[in-house]
Amino acid sequence: MDTTVSLRATGKDAQKAVDESFARIARLDALASSQNPDSDVSKINAAAGSHYVQVDPAVYEMISFAKGFSERSSGEWDITVGIITNLWQIGTENQHVPEAGALAEAMQHVNYKDILLRPEDHSVMLAKAGMSIDLGGVAKGYAVDEVRKIYEAHHIESGLINMGASSMYAVGKTSKGKAWNIGMKHPRSDTNGEYLGIVSIENQALSTSGDYERYFMQDGRRYHHIFDPVTGYPADSGVMSDSIVIDGDVEHAGMLSDILTTVVFVLGPQKGLAFINGMDGVECEITGTDGTIYMTDGFRSRFSDMNADFRIAE
């Protein structure tokens, strides 16, 4: 999952729930990581343009859901950007701005419509050789949903599922009977404990994306890991971070929140808010590169302690 996982649970079977959850997360990581040559994702990528690969039902569900959301977002979300991710190498010692020709060639292999699905045996094929999928923007959210199922099976009524702060789920209330207060990272400060603000959640998923997570600077420009599937470049939409809160009764709340943070980041403040406002049970906060904060009404009602470095859009 390329992150630190923290699980809290209160109840008679809390330790069992946590132990089972960590085992499930490890299993999903082994299946979905493109960095693992034996993973289902790596096998799909290796077989691109050649043949179908039968995968674990969990991997099939992630890919099927992601493709469906690509259609819903008109391609603003696309897991076939794997070849772009590999080209830029952001977050590694080889990170760099690709040559225009190499990028143009890679973009010929980015198209969610070329993900072929065979539901009867959970098989997946990429239609063109050279294609590559990357589940980095969906796997943590899926894992949150899976842990939530385990918590429910063990009757956990209070807990916090935290996949490195980028994907979370608050189960019930805290031990003090209050909503969970989550500090939202200040996207331009490395000072420990300095937040953008506080968001309160209860039986809700929370995901955050930002251009501060993995990036490098070159010629005064920030190149980050959130790619625009249309350009092949890091999204340049006037956003430096965004957060999504989704009610727990929304299907696939964790996975959906994970995806939506990327979609909104690519769309930008105005289009992003318009997109979210058309969805039930979903709230959103967007931090613009000029320090302006945009929020849906539902997010604003649970947001507090805003840092003085920012201002709310009028």
Short description:
With 314 residues, the chain is an alpha+beta fold. 32% of the residues lie in helices and 25% in strands.
Give a structural overview.
The protein has an eight-stranded mixed β-sheet with strand order 1-5-6-9-12-13-14-16. The two termini are 38 Å apart. With 314 residues, the chain is an alpha+beta fold. Helix 1 packs antiparallel against helix 6, helix 6 packs antiparallel against helix 7 and helix 7 packs antiparallel against helix 8. It is built from nine helices and 16 strands.
List the topology elements.
Layout: E1 5-10, H1 14-32, H2 40-46, E2 53-54, H3 57-72, H4 82-88, H5 100-107, E3 115-118, E4 123-126, H6 139-153, E5 158-163, E6 167-171, E7 180-185, E8 195-201, E9 204-210, E10 215-218, E11 221-224, E12 239-247, H7 253-267, H8 269-277, E13 282-288, E14 292-295, H9 297-300, E15 303-304, E16 311-312
Helix pairs in contact: 1-6, 6-7, 7-8
